[in-house]
């Protein structure tokens, strides 16, 4: 778990795990988050322990404790591209991300999630662009 973890980042409906004897608990975000829930947290949603006991190695609720890469802003996404190529990439992004989502990302109203980063990279590759897309900022955080 990241050093400066703040429990306030955890969504209210995030499912926690209380199975301390699980051999995978040291690497499970659901269990580690539970350890950070302080006394000010009144209620948490938990997995039924009877559901996971005996299924630890194949637990369908296991979530690895890894940070995901999000991007914020695409101010300079098209700067190094020829105009005609930029227009084609933009059209692909409208199709893949939807126009509304594209404009919200462009106006920095929301983060670009890892799946959307992949879609942007794929749009570049489809137009033969070998360089990586340029994002204003990369943010590493948990993908709840």
Tell me, what's the shape? Answer: elongated
Percent of residues in β-strands: 5-15%
Order of secondary-structure elements: EHEHEHHHE
| Count of DSSP strands | 4
Number of helices: 5
Report the helical percentage: 25-40%
The tally of structural domains comes to 2
Distance between the termini: 13 Å
Structural class: alpha+beta
Low-confidence region ranges: none
Oligomer: single chain
Mean pLDDT: 93
Rg from Cα: 20 Å
- Biggest sheet, spatial arrangement of strands: 1-2
What profile does the largest beta sheet have? 2 strands, parallel
Overview of this protein structure:
The chain has 144 residues and is α+β, with helices and mostly antiparallel strands. It has 2 domains: 7-58, no CATH class; 68-141. Helix content is 33%, strand content 10%. It is built from 5 helices and 4 strands. The protein has helices spanning 29-36, 49-52, 83-97, 99-106, 114-126; strands at 15-16, 45-46, 68-72, 137-141. A two-stranded parallel sheet has the order 1-2. Strands 3-4 form a two-stranded antiparallel sheet. Helix 1 (29-36) links the parallel strand 1 and strand 2 (45-46). Helix 3 crosses helix 5 (114-126).
């Amino acid at each position: 778990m990241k050093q400066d973890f703040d429990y306030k980042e955890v969504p209210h409906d995030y499912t926690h795990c209380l199975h301390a004897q699980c051999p995978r608990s040291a690497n499970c975000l659901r269990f580690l988050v539970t350890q950070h829930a302080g006394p000010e947290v009144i209620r948490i949603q938990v997995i039924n322990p009877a559901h996971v006991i005996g299924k630890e190695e194949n637990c369908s609720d296991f979530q690895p404790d890894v940070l995901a890469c999000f991007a914020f802003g695409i101010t300079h996404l098209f700067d190094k591209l020829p105009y005609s190529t930029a227009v084609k990439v933009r059209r692909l992004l409208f199709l893949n991300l939807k126009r509304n989502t594209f404009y919200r990302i462009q106006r920095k109203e929301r983060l670009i999630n890892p799946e959307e980063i992949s879609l942007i990279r794929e749009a570049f590759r489809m137009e033969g662009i070998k360089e990586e897309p340029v994002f204003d900022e990369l943010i590493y955080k948990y993908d709840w």
